[in-house]
Specification:
The protein is α+β, with helices and mostly antiparallel strands. The chain has twelve helices and twelve strands. This is Peptidase M48 domain-containing protein.
Length: about 325
């Protein structure tokens, strides 16, 4: 991916009378997503075909915010530089060298960071994410930060992670979706579930990426939207949802979670979300809990970590 792992990114927000509360909410949600995603992406790096360095920073840029909201964003986040650190994952590579929230990112490997567009744009942030993604894993990366008007250089040693960008979406509501290398998780969903539930949701979406589902569905001629909820398209999409559930068990266990976490989620909190996130292509919460319990029962014969289940051997197989 051109960007994360981890560096989880923030999406633009609209100005409102309660700007302080809005920006505090955004920072808190991004931080929660980053912490859960970081753990999954790093632990399962060997299962992903593409990896990149994980720094453990949530980055955003002043350009992402509407012009009317920028004074409030500057007041809330500082933005001593056009691109800044919104939050840091505890214990991650950036945290270990003292990177803090609201540090401005001035340069990477000696090359200055640009920004300052008048139009709302993610260009400045994405350029930084792309540069970080191109850095070597396991070697020091010099990052120049601006804090309280003073520049300082830190040397971050990133670790390998799945090359997947995880983004909080303020427009997605209670949805979570994945494409070839991006996971979008709705802000409403993040607020409605705890960290364990968020881990279950993100593991399921990461499984879609690892199993190459979007490309395989496209190759099979599966239709999206309403057309995907009927006939052959519905059957194949349901098969990929079940497959993603099954793989999610292994992704969670590789990340140190209990194998019972996913089935427990769908028996409790997940069941309460059924009317929000279920469609004709997803199983009912109870059915998903049973499938996940059956898959978790197979773990006794797979003591090594990270586990590489046989499911991965079929990730290029045509869907029929």
């Amino acid at each position: 991916m051109a960007g994360l792992a981890l560096v989880v990114v923030a999406c633009p927000v609209a100005a409102s009378p309660g700007e302080d509360a809005m920006f505090a909410r955004l920072r808190g949600l991004d931080r929660r997503v980053a912490i859960v995603a970081d753990r999954l992406l790093i632990a399962n790096a060997t299962l992903c075909r593409r990896t990149e360095p994980a720094f453990g920073m949530v980055l955003h840029a002043i350009d992402q915010y509407p012009l009317k909201a920028r004074p409030g964003a500057r007041a809330a986040f500082g933005f001593g530089a056009p691109v800044a650190v919104e939050a840091v994952v505890p214990g991650a590579a950036a945290d270990l060298v003292g990177v803090r929230a609201d540090d401005g990112v001035v340069a990477i490997a000696g090359l200055p960071v640009a920004g300052g567009a008048k139009a709302v744009s993610t260009g400045a942030r994405d350029a930084v994410l792309d540069r970080l993604a191109g850095m070597p894993v396991g070697a020091e990366v010099a990052v120049t930060l601006l804090r309280d008007g003073t520049a300082r250089e830190v040397r971050i040693v990133p670790v390998a992670a799945c090359a997947v960008r995880v983004e909080l979406s303020m427009e997605r509501g209670a949805e979570a979706v994945a494409d070839d290398a991006t996971i979008l998780v709705g802000s409403d969903l993040v607020e409605r579930i705890d960290e364990d539930g968020l881990a279950v949701v993100l593991a399921h979406e990461l499984a879609h990426v690892v199993l190459n589902h979007r490309a395989r569905l496209a190759a099979a001629g599966v239709r999206r939207g309403l057309g995907g909820e009927f006939g052959r398209s519905r059957r194949l999409m349901r098969a990929t949802e079940d497959e993603a559930d099954r793989l999610s068990i292994y992704l969670l266990v590789n990340a140190g979670h209990d194998a019972a976490l996913a089935p427990a989620f769908w028996r409790a909190a997940g069941a309460g979300l059924e009317g929000v996130i279920r469609s004709r292509t997803h199983g009912a919460a109870a059915a998903r809990a049973r499938l996940l319990s059956d898959e978790a029962a197979l773990l006794g014969a797979m003591p090594e970590r990270p586990i590489r289940p046989a499911l991965l051997d079929r990730r290029d197989a045509a869907l029929r």
